[in-house]
Amino acid sequence: MTKVAVVKTDSYDTHIVEQAMTELLDELGGISRFIQPGDRVLLKPNMLEGVDKDKAVTTHPEVLRAVIRQVKAAGGAAFVGDSPALGNIRKVAEITGIAEVCLQEKAELLAFEKSAVTYHSDGLFIKKFELAQELQQVDKVISLAKMKTHSLMGITGGVKNLFGFIVGPYKAQFHLRMQKQRDFAAMLADLNEAVKPVLHIIDGIVGMEGNGPRNGTPIKTGVLLAGTNGFAVDMVMANIMGFNAEKLPVSAWALSQKLAPKLTAIDIAGSAQATVVPYAPAKNLVALRAAIPYWLADLGQNQLTAKPVINDKCVGCGRCAAHCPPKTIVIAKGRAQLDLKNCIRCYCCQELCPHDAVDLKEGIWLKFVQRLTK
Ligand code: SF4
Ligand code: SF4
To answer: Residue 360 has what pLDDT?
Structure first.
C-alpha cells in the first residue's frame, strides 16, 4: 500500500525540525531505506525566487538542513540544486538562507545551467526531456517542495517542484508546447517519472494560500509530509489544504494513468494525519475543472479560464514581458500592456510579478459555468 507520512511541526527551530524530520522518515522506515553509504544525493528545494524565507515562497532552509543531516547520517553526500524561475541561484540561495545552510552543512550548491537529454521511453506524453545535466551525475534525487497554491495547477507540491530541472529559458518553451492545462499536467507526470525522486518531502510548516506560488499569503499549517509516490504525497497535501485532491490536474491525470492510488487507498500515517487547514485557492479554472468534462474545458480554454489583468500596482519593470512565453506583453507608458488574443493562460506573468500587479479575472462564461456547476 502506498504510504504518506504527515507529522506535526509548529516551528522552524533547528532542533524541532530535525526531530520532526526523523519522526517523519521513521514512519517510512528510516532514511537508510532510501539512501545507502556512498550515494550522491541531489536535494531539489523550491527556489522560485530570492525573497525572504518568511514569505513562504521557497522551501525553508531549516527543512533543507534537516534533510542534509539525514542524508549524511545515512552515509550519503548531499548536493543542493535548482534553476530558479527568476535570478541567479547563488543570489536566490543567499537571500533565502539556503546558501548559509549549504555552507554550514557542507552541501555543495549546484546551479542548473546546462541541459542534457534524458530519455524516458515509458513516458505517456513526453519521451525525451532536456533536463539539468547534474541529474546524470548523482545517484538519487529528493524533492524538497513547499506547500503552496498555484494559479495554473491549483497546487505546487512535490511533482511541480521538479519543473526546476528544466533549465531557465526552456521553461517557457514547455508552456508554449503544452498550452492545455491537462497537457501540462501530463508533462509534469512524465517529468516525475523521468526524474524518479526516491523521496518527496514537503515543507508545510508555513505554506502559501491565495495568489500562489509567488504572491500569496503565508499560512501556518504545522506539517511536514513525505512519501515515495509524489502524486500520492501531493494528493494528501491538497486534501490538508481543503481542496478536491483527486480533481486537480496532475492528480487527475496520474489517477487516470494508474500512477497513483485513489486518496482513500493511501495509507496516511503520522502525528498529523488528520490535519485540515483550509487554504484560499488560487483564482483560476482548477476548481471548475472538477465539475466539467475535460473536452469541454479544453475546447473553451480561453473563455473558461480567468484572464490576466494588469492592476494599478504595475511599475513597468518589464519582468512579465521578458517571461511571457508567446511574448504578448509590451511595456508602454510605464505599464505592462497585455494582448489577450495571443495569451495562452499560462499565468507566468502573475506568478513572476514582484509587485502583485497581475490579477486573474473571471470572464462572463467562466462565471456562468461556475454558477451552473455549484
Ligand atoms: S505587471 Fe508586474 S512584472 Fe509586469 S511590468 Fe508590471 S510590475 Fe513588472
Ligand atoms: S500574458 Fe501572462 S498568462 Fe498570458 S501568455 Fe503571457 S505570461 Fe502567460
So the answer is: 85
DSSP state at residue 166: S
Interacting residues of 146 by C-beta distance below 8 A, sequence separation 6+: 45, 46, 56, 57, 58, 59, 60, 156, 161, 202, 203, 204, 207, 208, 213
Omega cis (within 30) before 326? no
The finding on whether 353 has its CB within 6 A of some atom of ligand 1 is yes
Q: Could you read off the pLDDT of 244-296 as tens digits, one per residue?
A: 999 899 999 999 999 999 999 999 999 999 999 999 998 765 545 555 666 66
CB 177 within 8 A of CB 169: no
Q: List, in sequence order, every beta strand (DSSP E) within the chain.
A: 3-8, 40-45, 77-82, 108-111, 115-119, 128-132, 140-150, 154-156, 199-209, 217-227, 267-269, 307-310, 329-332, 335-338, 358-361
d(CA 299, CA 374): 21
Say whether pLDDT at 28 is over 90: yes
Q: Tally the C-alpha atoms within 13 A of residue 77's C-alpha that lie toward its C-beta.
A: 8
Q: What is the Å distance from ligand 2's center to 329 Cα? A: 8
- Using only C-alpha atoms, the chain has a radius of gyration, in whole angstroms, of 19
Distance CA 329, CA 292 (A): 31
User: Residues near ligand 2 with C-beta < 6 Å?
Assistant: 308, 324-326, 328-329, 338, 343-349
CA 27 to chain centre: 23
Average pLDDT rounded to a whole number, residues 43-72: 97
Instruction: List, in order of start, the domains of the chain with CATH numbers.
Output: 3-269 (3.40.50), 288-372 (3.30.70.20)
